[in-house]
Amino acid sequence: MSRKDQVTFLAAAWCLSYPDELLLERVPLMRAALGEFPGALAPFAVVLDSFQDNDLMALQSQYVAEFDLGKRHALHLSYWTDGDTRRRGEVLGAFKKVYRGSDTLVNTRGELPDFLPMVLEFAATVDMATGKELLQQYRPSLELIKFGLLRDDLAHTEIVQAVCNTLPGASPADEQAVMRMAGFGPPTESVGLDPYDPRLLPMKGA
Predict the structure, then answer these.
(1) How many C-beta atoms lie closer than 10 Å to residue 78's C-beta?
(2) Which InterPro entries match (predicted)?
(3) I need a labelling partner for 190 at 20 to 30 A (CA). Which of 34, 66, 81, 166 fits?
(4) pLDDT digit string (tens) for 20-60?
(5) Could you give the CA distance from residue 154 to residue 111 in angstroms, rounded to a whole number?
């Protein structure tokens, strides 16, 4: 197991989760752990600074606006490949099966099992190899999340890129390249999976 990847994944899981008092208490720990590896802290610096410079209520309001009020930055990996289709239920079941197969009780905290912070924490603390396989399988989803964050100039962009950098292969240069990588986008009809259509990408102001 790569210690650097483990630290990167766990810090990313925490930074992409809804902020609470515990998260703010963990900021010095994240700084210290990431600081052990050259360059590892840089992608997290702006977000960690914001945790220390803003009160908790402001951080929570910002998180809700960025991640909960729409799907532009949806952190559920299968949304980007299966959208709101019937097949997504099977995909979510597959995530649960992976967690059960680890022989470790995974606390979903009421979230769907494909929630990116949960997958990252699973990889960091339970099974790095299997967790990385999930992340690689949903690499197009990671890249689309990243481009959505980048389009809105959000600091979490660099954190998601840091996760992508732990996986095999270079990141696609743009969303068109992700389309070629995946072949699919987030459809919204109730059955099947449509071919990837760039019009399905969340657009500015959506």
Answers:
(1) 23
(2) DMSO/NO3_reduct_chaperone, NO3_reductase_chaperone_NarJ, TorD-like_sf
(3) 66
(4) 999 999 999 999 999 999 999 999 999 999 999 999 999 99
(5) 23
